[in-house]
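Researcher: We plan to redesign the surface later, but first we want a full-length starting point. Tokens attached.
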């Protein structure tokens, strides 16, 4: 990391709020939600008994693992975070948490979450959680983020693990449906994050981070966003084709996909930040609604089968 970084190496006494912020609660909420979806879908599609304590433990482990990755990411990226307007107020670059404390906090949560999942649930889920944390820090944050515009494409896989972890926590394995849940988030990540990168382009350029809009330019980025969104819509519609979802999900997934494509096509013809911001915001709504409908559809299908 740059020796000329402006972050504060000596922090004042930190508060609980600083450590909560260190865990990126906004990102964590989406991670936990997709983990919940994987867990509940696994329960609906299997006969494995899974009690409330196990459910809460699974979500707690996923939350701790997510927070661990966020804390270690802020520790490593403190130099570029101090340059970017969007991240300057984070606890480490702002001097509210010392870098060594952030690293120790992240390592402790990572170890605790993986060990707890291995001991209380199963080794498959624990290994997936460990892999997600290691991928986010080692592959994305340290290796790819500062080296290639494909950083978010490859590294974004880390954020696609939670539904597989939730699924494995229940069943002890990874099925085709769990892989599709992973693939949905994997393909969703580039258009989601590149929308943010388009209107934060100056930030990334100043920090020397080779995000796609910085390296390839806005037009190329927008074309790639459209391509990834088409692939995303196709993979979401694979679930009903394979008999893993019903007509309610099919209709809603098609409508949500059409709305996402509408946003990306509007973005392509827009030279301001308006549609980049709209697309970024809608992408979060899209993922939340898609997984919500997926769970509702599976519950209705199970209810219909049981009531016959």
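Model: Full-length starting sequence:
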């Amino acid at each position: 990391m740059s020796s000329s970084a402006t972050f504060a190496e000596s922090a004042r006494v930190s508060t609980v709020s600083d450590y909560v912020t260190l865990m990126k609660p906004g990102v964590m909420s989406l991670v936990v939600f997709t983990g919940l979806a994987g867990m509940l879908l696994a329960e609906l599609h299997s006969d494995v008994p899974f009690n409330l304590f196990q459910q809460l433990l699974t979500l707690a482990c996923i939350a701790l693992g997510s927070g661990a990755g966020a804390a270690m990411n802020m520790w490593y990226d403190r130099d570029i975070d101090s340059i970017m307007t969007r991240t300057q107020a984070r606890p480490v670059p702002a001097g509210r948490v010392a870098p060594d404390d952030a690293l120790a906090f992240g390592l402790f949560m990572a170890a605790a979450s993986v060990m707890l999942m291995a001991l209380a649930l199963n080794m498959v889920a624990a290994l997936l959680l460990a892999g997600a944390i290691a991928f986010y820090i080692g592959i994305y944050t340290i290796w790819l983020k500062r080296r290639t515009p494909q950083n978010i494409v490859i590294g974004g896989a880390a954020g696609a693990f939670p539904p597989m972890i939730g699924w494995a926590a229940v069943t002890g394995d990874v099925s085709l449906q769990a892989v599709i849940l992973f693939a949905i988030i994997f393909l969703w990540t580039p258009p989601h994050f590149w929308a943010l990168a388009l209107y934060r382009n100056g930030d990334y350029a100043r920090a020397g981070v080779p995000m796609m809009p910085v390296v390839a330019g806005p037009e190329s980025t927008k074309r790639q966003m459209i391509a990834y969104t088409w692939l995303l819509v196709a993979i979401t519609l694979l679930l009903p084709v394979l008999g893993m979802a019903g007509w309610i999900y099919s209709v809603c997934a098609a409508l949500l996909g059409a709305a996402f494509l509408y946003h990306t096509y509007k973005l392509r013809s827009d030279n301001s930040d308006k549609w980049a911001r709209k697309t970024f915001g809608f992408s979060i709504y899209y993922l939340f609604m898609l997984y919500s409908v997926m769970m509702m559809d599976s519950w209705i299908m199970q209810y219909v089968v049981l009531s016959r």
